[in-house]
Design goal:
With 54 residues, the protein is an alpha+beta fold. It contains one helix and two strands.
């Protein structure tokens, strides 16, 4: 069984810092979404059976 585990995303920090002028979203949110895309792509490519987000 393949398990992908990731943690410490610090989603609670999303409202702090600079915002993207184009979308109005906090840059931290955009960074998290990019990272999440990478995690999902890796899970698909590696054919993992379970993803744990802690």
């Amino acid at each position: 069984m393949k398990i992908l585990h990731f943690a410490d995303a610090h989603i609670d920090m999303a409202n702090y810092g600079k915002h993207d002028p184009a979308s109005g979203l906090p840059l931290r949110v955009l960074d998290f979404l990019k990272s999440l895309d990478t995690i999902v792509d890796t899970a698909i490519q590696q054919k993992v059976d379970m993803v744990i987000f802690a």
